[in-house]
Specification:
By secondary structure, the chain is α/β, with parallel strands linked by helices. The chain is about 45% helix and about 15% strand. Helix 8 crosses helix 9. Bound molecules: guanine (GUN).
Length: about 325
């Protein structure tokens, strides 16, 4: 069947002079049987599942899940993420509250706002969009969130539970990655996963989760970071690579083994005068050249970013059930 398809496609190519670069790339992708891990498709499945559960919530007159987000300053990327989180809450029928502060907000004002949200019985989930301005102690702020409302899963109490494999809120981006691997039934057991980046938001938790005795999981995990020597050699041994370092186009084709699964967590705004917005979103992977080597790869945009929001919604729903 595939052979027939390739033959037909080959015949078609013989009759056509292919000069266009993009078209050449498409042909390459076609032959290498690489599959895109489509964040649009998987996040829709997750959101449809939530919407179905919401029908039951409404039918039973149960509490509507309520997410409160705190946004500090006017960082363009943070604005976009939070706006998208709020919009997605509405889409699945959740309540949301957005609280904004100026860049120079004092730490005690922020802590007071968090305490009010902790006490507010109607609020199920609290999210403080990161990064925070320099005058704010991130650790203090995150630790002040009631762990039962910590839908980001960043509170040390919840991190500890995650490390021990106990039920808790799993941070949204790593959880979104797991949902993707599961959706596409990608085998992870016994595979060598290389995680590039060791942030509390992505690198550290995904390395723990992929190494856990679960599915997706049971990987042998190597965590790489800015001090890692022989990064290229290590990446070349990987069956699964999670690129989460925030450097656009960092992972090149000569760092990736044929048939590897590549998960691109990067989402950096890169200036582009030709775009109306003035920027394009770039992942940590040199997609055009890496994709032909992969068995599966996530695009940017349209990959992990969408999954992060879907996973956050699921955590908020779970938090509301605790009431
Ligand atoms: N900044 C980048 N990613 C995240 C995230 O998942 N949650 C929060 N709160 N801030 C972020």
């Amino acid at each position: 069947m595939i052979g027939e398809k390739i033959n037909r496609f080959g015949e078609e190519i013989k009759h056509r002079l292919v000069t266009d670069r993009h078209r050449q790339q498409q042909i390459l992708l076609y032959f290498c049987a690489m599959q895109i891990l489509d964040g649009k498709v998987v996040s829709k499945t997750v959101k449809d599942n939530i919407k179905e559960r919401m029908l039951f919530v409404e039918e039973q007159g149960r509490k509507i899940p309520h997410l409160a987000a705190i946004l500090i300053g006017t960082n363009g990327a943070s604005e976009t993420y939070v706006a998208s989180k709020v919009k997605n809450c509405a889409e699945v029928g959740f309540k949301s509250t957005l609280i904004r502060f100026d860049d120079d907000v004092a730490e005690n004002i922020l802590l007071e706002a968090i305490e009010n949200l902790n006490r507010d019985e109607d609020v199920d989930g609290i999210l403080i969009q990161l990064p925070l301005p320099a005058q704010i102690n991130e650790e203090k702020v995150i630790s002040s969130i009631n762990p039962d409302k910590d839908v980001d899963g960043f509170h040390p109490f919840n991190t500890g539970k995650m490390v021990q494999g106990l039920p808790t809120f799993i941070p949204a981006t790593p959880n979104g990655i797991l949902m993707m691997l599961e959706h596409y039934k990608i085998e992870t057991s016994g595979k060598h996963a290389v995680v590039i980046g060791r942030s509390n938001i992505v690198g550290r938790p995904i390395s723990i989760l992929l190494g856990s005795n679960t599915y997706p999981g049971n990987c042998t995990v190597t965590v790489c970071h800015s001090r890692t020597k022989n990064l290229k050699d290590i990446c070349l041994q990987a069956d699964i690579i999670v690129a989460a370092l925030g450097i656009p186009g960092f992972l090149k084709a000569d760092m990736v083994k044929e048939g590897a699964v590549v998960i691109d967590v990067g989402i950096t705004r890169v200036a582009d005068a030709e775009k109306k917005s003035g920027f394009v979103l770039k992942g940590d992977v040199d997609f055009e050249n890496v994709a032909p080597r992969c068995s599966y790869i996530t695009p940017v945009p349209g990959g992990v970013g969408l999954m992060t929001i879907a996973a956050l919604l699921m955590n908020t729903f779970t938090a509301s059930l605790k009431k």
